[in-house]
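Protocol step 4 of 6: structure prediction from sequence.
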Amino acid sequence: MSNMKTAFAPKNILRYPRLDTVLMVEEAIRNAKDYPTKAKLWKSLPKKMMYQTFNTIIDYLEYSGKILLEKDGSIIWIWDPQGVRELLSKKHLVVR
């Protein structure tokens, strides 16, 4: 058995989020009219959860490249695989 750890390994987790909860947070960020802070987003969610669980989801979304956390605390949804595919299909685009 290997002693290798995963790159995303949050510590002291009491409850791991369920998939439907992760998807709910993703949808809330994607549909936000502005880029909410973590506290504002957490309070606006339709289903309440422990703040530690919410932070685990935010950490995962940042690690997976779906969101960006700005210095001012705002959260920006950056995941756009369809947009990337469209850009890569352009003949004049040079990818380095």
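Step 5 (inspection) to follow. The chain has a mean pLDDT of 85.
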